Amino acid sequence: MQSNDATPVLELKGVSKSFGAVVALRNADLALRAHSIHAVVGENGAGKSTLVKIMAGLYQRDTGTFQFDGKAVDFRTTAEAKSAGIAVIYQEPTLFPDLSVTENVFMGRQPTGRFGRIDKAAMRAEVLQLMERLGVRIDPDRPAEGLSIADQQIIEIAKAISLDARALIMDEPTAALSGVEVDRLFAVARSLRDEGRALMFISHRFDEVFALCDTVTVMRDGTYISTDAIVDTSVAEIVRRMVGRDVKELFPKQVAEVGRPLLEVTNLTQPGVFHDISFTVRSGEIVALAGLVGAGRSEVARAIFGVDPYASGTVSVDSKLLAGRSPSIAMKAGVALVPEDRRKQGLVVDATVASNITDAIRDTLTRFGLVTVRRENTEAQIWARKLEVKTAALDSVVGTLSGGNQQKVVLAKWLAANPKVLIIDEPTRGIDVGTKSEVHRMMSELAGLGLAILMISSELPEVLGMADRVLVMREGHLTATIDRVDATAENVMFAATHASEEVA
Questions:
Q1: What is the reported pTM?
Q2: 405-432: average pLDDT
Q3: Which of 20, 242, 343, 427 has the most CB atoms around its CB within 10 Å?
């Protein structure tokens, strides 16, 4: 529900922040009100993170005003911001893994009883009350190590409530969560809103913004663009303000000539994971594997590439049966896999951009068992330019790049190997809307060059916008095959949530 409170809980007006000659934030305006969830959206580099860090006390503004509860403030440390009543819930919380849930909630402020001893019973009782209040069940005595990201975020929220935080800032909190976990987090967020707290929600996912938030602020290139009530705007309008172009340009799908079969999967089965999976991807085609989280899509892709096992079935590439089941055999046959988790599975984050781009073709660059920096850089430069990787230098550490540019580096690595089949799992997860368009353009161009592309995506607009055919999975089974002209959000979701006969 939209708040009518006259005085915002937190308000910034005309706030700017520069780092030397680089202006990160220009004349930013933001007002968070009680009883309201306020979305802030924008591409990477729009200034969202700088804005959060100013509110959290990590950075100090250069110009403008900052008020909290109607009073001018200027936080010099994160401790000051927390003490005032501002809490930030990050995408990946940083709990102490060896301590219990209760100890993490009360870290640094444990209540004491008689003789100055820590009152563990009081701490535990309060954590139980907090969890009940939030409507979740987490054992207060269990260690934080091994908790899901979703549970860790709930613990951070519980900590914020125990500190009586008036403003909660949620920075990309759903990026690593399943659908059920997102629903639980949203229920918690709504309960906090209804208690009278002010929430700020940063996300690249427009469906979540429209489902959860009351108000949305758009930022572009470090500059405040607009603020609107959710009911008074649309996805198309938000995209236009964010990137300066229409929503239809997010999916620059080109017409490609469809040729011979390049990937043929027949009766692929791994008991308990996926069953009797058969499909074909042809030259020039983009085929999407759609379905809910846990449907088995990524497992099928990993099995095709030889990472995960399968009990029966066959995989053929360009009419040749794969002789074995390993990534090296798949790569030699012309298969490339861009994994869902690019940081953990697709990149060596501590290595350079050049080293990552040439990783899959290193054997071709060696002389007497050695690779020279010059040869590596020459090859890497070709692909960095083709994919427009934005980096200060090829010897920059890849972990310092934005998510979109990291994804481009993973693509560059595999394209350098000249594959026939490209399997790409969640191609635009965690990427801003402008970079999404670039990745989609690349995929369309690659299909136009004759590659067969198998795309796994949880984003329905991406599936409908890019796929020539949609294969829908549910609980390890292929439930529908839908041509592009027949694919709608309704029939894809129906096939993903209902057992049904395959539609040819």
A1: 0.58
A2: 83
A3: 427
